[in-house]
Amino acid sequence: MTHDRDLMIRATWAHLVEGRTQESIARELGLTRAKTNRLIAECRELGMVRIGLQTDARVALADESALKARFSLLDVWIVPRTETADAATRTVGMAAGSYVSETLGAGQTLAVGWGRTLGASVAGLQPRRAQGNRVVTLLGSMVRGHGLSSFDIASHYAQTLCAECCYLIAPRVAESAEIAMRLYERADIREALKIAEQADTILIGVDDLSGSSTLFQTGQFTAQELADLRAAGAVCTLQGVALDAEGQIIANPLAARTVGLEPGLLAQSPRRIVAAAGERKAKSIRALLRGGHCNVLITDEPTAEAILMLAP
Question: Which of 60, 77, 89, 285 shows a CA-CA span of 20 to 30 A to 70?
Fold first, then answer.
């Protein structure tokens, strides 16, 4: 029964979330097309599928338990492995949106970051009538968003959740530390940061330091800046602040130019979610967890396995 349930979830996820054909799913799972069709139909009849999947539809319980225990996490949700990196980003994003829909209570505030996974998370949200929710951006935005900026993501969340939206009106990275300091003096920015500081739930992605990172691809950091951070022992940044492999802060000049909520204040939120996919992000995710910056992890199977392979 457990094996069939696992196959049911994997087949349905691949078909409805990734958009794959039943023929390709059948080949991957070693099933006939008829059985694949039956599993998907049964999963839908049982009500396990909406836009995405219910958060109790799990396929990697052992790894989830191991990650919870190792990092003292509130929750872990591992989604099935996918054929491509883009599909992994979409499915992890959808899972994050579903998780927020199920856990964000009436009258609560959600603070959101930026990036591809969070942009994809909007598709997993369940629309609701007004419940007194509020959505706020955790950091400034970019000139060109392409759906990845905190402004774009917060706006979509607020619209879907019928919530008030609050924006930190500032660039994500200022031209200088002096400009950033002057921005922090503005009353509207202080107000937005105060709202973010009091958020009940925080949702962030992972700012890794590879050449494939969204930080580099969107021109937020130059190749030299990323190289300098790596040379200093950093594996990722959080709100512009560099973190080493153990999640400890490393002093760097870029932090003073970033406009957003300080990492130390994130810990005041009772639910701090990191949603990310990709084995290249394993060290960065582990740093966030080791440093206690997040207490909920949403990722995919290969990434979860890569994290567990790293030193405790």
Answer: 89
What CATH number is given to the structural domain containing 243?
3.40.50.1360
pLDDT score of 177 more than 70 = yes
Nearest Cα to 243, choosing from 279, 204, 269, 277? Answer: 204
Whole-structure pTM value = 0.82
- d(CA 270, CA 193) in angstroms, rounded, equals 17
Are 37 and 73 in the same domain?
no
* Rounded Cα gap, residues 237 and 210, in angstroms: 11
- Tell me the pLDDT tens digit for each residue of 179-227: 999 999 999 999 999 999 999 999 999 989 988 887 787 777 788 988 9
What burial class does residue 75 get, using C-beta atoms within 10 Å of its C-beta: 0-12 exposed, 13-18 middle, 19+ buried?
A: middle
40 and 57 both lie in a single domain: no
Q: How confident is the model at residue 1 (pLDDT cuts 50, 70, 90)?
A: very low
Which sign, positive or negative, has the C-alpha torsion 7, 119, 150, 284? Answer: positive
The domain containing residue 160 runs over which residues?
52-309
Please name the residue that has the structure tokens 């069939």.
4
Q: What is the pLDDT of residues 261-270, one digit of tens each?
A: 999 999 999 9
Identify whether residues 153 and 33 lie together within a single domain: no
CA distances from 140 to 103, 150, 201 (A): 26, 7, 18
Number of separate domains in the chain: 2
Residues 62 and 126 in one domain: yes
